[in-house]
Specification:
single chain; alpha/beta; binds FE3-S4 cluster
C-alpha cells in the first residue's frame, strides 16, 4: 500500500506507540483487502461501547491505546454501553460490569472519543455528506450511512474504528470504491409498508434473501422511507444477514432509479415482498404464544425525538400495567431534550423507563433478568431486538408487533 509521508511517520512510531499500533492495524486490514492507499476521513463511529462485547481484554487494549498517547484526530462517537446511569442497579447489572464500564468510559474520554453511547450516531450529529468516506461500526448505522445518506463506509469493528479515530485514516477498499456500490438484485415491495414496524419486517425479509449482497428496493413504499423507518429496516437487514448497503429506488442518494442503482446491469434475481411474505416474516419473529407479558422494549435502534413523542401520545396519560417492565431506549442527547420537554416525566409517571446509553443486548441481559426480575417474555416492534433477544437470552419468547400493539399490551399487561 502506498502511504503518504505522514502515514509512514505514524507507522514508524514517530507520533507515539498508540498511533503506530493504530496504523499497523489499518495497514494490515488494507493489505488483506487489497487496498492501494489510505484516505483521510473526518468522522468515525467506534464499535464497542460495552464490556459485554469487548470483554476484559478489549477494555485493556483500549486503555493501553489511551495510556500510550492515542487521541482521536477526528470526530468520533461510540456505540451503546452496558449501563444507564440511573437504572443499572434496578436492571440487575452486576457491579463488575459497572466497574468495567467505568474503566472503558474513562479510556474513551482520554482518547477524546465522545461517549454519547448510541447506535444512532446520525441522529446526534455524526452526519456525513453524500459521498463522504468514513469508518463506522454498528451494523444498522453502517447500512444507514451507505444507503440512506449516500456516504461510504465498510463494515468495521472495534480495532479498526478505534485505529481510524486515532489516525484519521481509513484503507480504501470495498464499499469505499464506486464500482462496489451498485445493487445486484431487486426486492419489489408490494405489501403495506408505512410504519417503523413494517420497515423492520421488510428489513428482516430483505436480509434473509440478500446474504451480503446490496439490495435495490422498489415500490410506492419509498414515500414512507423516513430516517426512523429506514433505521428500523437497516437493523432488520443486519439481523437476518449482514447487509452493509441498500438502495431505495427514487429515494436514496445513489439510486435515482432501479437501473441506476443496478449500474445498468440486469438484476441477478427479483423478489416480491407481498402481504404473504410480510405475514410469514412477522410470524417467524413472533416466537411467544399465550398471553404472559413481562417486558416491552422500544427503541432498537435508539429512538428519535419524534418516536418518543409518538410513544407519549400512544400512552395518552395511561399507566403501564403492574409487573410489566417497559423500556424505551435512546441516547443522552435525545433524552436531554425529552427531560426539558417533559416527555421523560410523562413516561416515567406512566411507569416506563426512558433509558439512555444502553440496550438489552449491551448490558448482560441474562444476568440482569435473573438478578432483577422474573422476565420470561418480551414484546418489541423491532425485528433486530426480536431476533437478538430470542438468541441472546436463551431463546426467551418474543412477541413481535407494531409500536401501538406493544404500548397497548404494556398498558393491558398481556399480549392478546
Ligand atoms: Fe441499538 Fe441495541 Fe438495537 S445497540 S440497534 S438498540 S440491539
Amino acid at each position: 500500500m502506498q502511504l503518504t509521508k505522514e502515514e509512514q511517520a505514524m507507522l514508524d512510531g514517530e507520533l507515539g506507540p498508540a498511533t503506530q499500533k493504530a496504523m499497523h492495524i489499518l495497514t494490515a486490514i488494507g493489505d488483506i483487502y487489497g487496498a492501494q492507499r489510505m484516505a483521510r476521513i473526518s468522522r468515525v463511529h467506534v464499535a464497542s461501547g460495552t464490556p459485554v462485547s469487548t470483554g476484559v481484554g478489549g477494555v485493556k487494549f483500549i486503555e493501553w491505546m489511551a495510556d500510550n498517547g492515542g487521541r482521536a484526530r477526528v470526530f468520533a462517537t461510540v456505540n451503546p454501553s452496558a449501563i444507564d446511569d440511573r437504572y443499572w442497579r434496578e436492571l440487575g447489572v452486576p457491579q463488575e460490569y459497572h466497574d468495567l464500564q467505568m474503566r472503558l468510559t474513562g479510556a474513551y474520554e482520554r482518547l477524546n472519543i465522545v461517549t454519547a453511547y448510541s447506535c444512532t450516531p446520525y441522529l446526534i450529529g455524526n452526519v456525513p455528506a453524500k459521498g463522504e468516506l468514513l469508518s463506522s461500526a454498528e451494523s444498522s448505522a453502517i447500512c444507514m450511512y451507505n444507503g440512506f445518506f449516500g456516504a461510504r463506509t465498510n463494515r468495521q469493528g472495534n480495532p479498526s474504528t478505534l485505529s481510524s479515530a486515532i489516525t484519521g485514516r481509513v484503507p480504501v477498499y470495498g464499499l469505499l470504491l464506486e464500482e462496489n456500490r451498485f445493487g445486484s438484485f431487486v426486492v419489489k415491495v408490494e405489501a403495506r409498508c408505512e410504519t417503523a414496524h413494517d420497515f423492520a419486517t421488510l428489513g428482516y425479509y430483505t436480509g434473509a434473501v440478500s446474504g451480503n449482497r446490496v439490495p435495490v428496493l422498489a415500490g410506492d413504499f419509498a414515500a414512507h422511507a423516513t430516517v426512523d423507518n429506514c433505521k428500523m429496516m437497516a437493523a432488520g437487514m443486519n439481523s437476518s444477514a449482514a447487509v452493509a448497503h441498500f438502495h431505495i429506488a427514487g429515494l436514496t442518494p445513489e439510486a435515482p432509479s432501479v437501473a441506476a442503482a443496478l449500474g445498468g446491469k440486469a438484476p441477478e434475481e427479483t423478489f416480491v415482498f407481498d402481504e404473504a411474505a410480510r405475514r410469514e416474516t412477522e410470524a417467524k419473529l413472533c416466537s411467544a404464544s399465550g398471553e404472559r407479558l413481562d417486558m416491552v422494549v422500544l427503541g432498537c435502534p435508539h429512538v428519535s425525538l419524534l418516536q418518543v413523542q409518538e410513544i407519549v401520545s400512544l400512552l395518552g396519560g395511561r399507566r403501564i400495567a403492574p409487573g410489566v417492565v417497559f423500556q424505551i431506549l435512546t441516547s443522552d442527547a435525545i433524552k436531554a431534550v425529552c427531560d426539558r420537554q417533559g416527555y421523560t416525566e410523562s413516561l416515567e409517571g406512566a411507569g416506563a423507563m426512558l433509558l439512555s446509553r444502553t440496550c438489552p443486548t449491551c448490558y448482560p441481559l441474562g444476568e440482569a433478568i435473573s438478578g432483577a426480575r422474573d422476565i420470561r417474555s418480551l414484546a418489541t416492534d423491532s425485528s433486530k431486538m426480536a431476533h437478538y433477544i430470542a438468541a441472546d437470552s436463551g431463546r426467551m419468547p418474543v412477541y413481535y408487533g407494531s409500536t401501538e400493539e406493544c404500548v397497548e399490551a404494556a398498558v393491558r399487561g398481556n399480549w392478546r
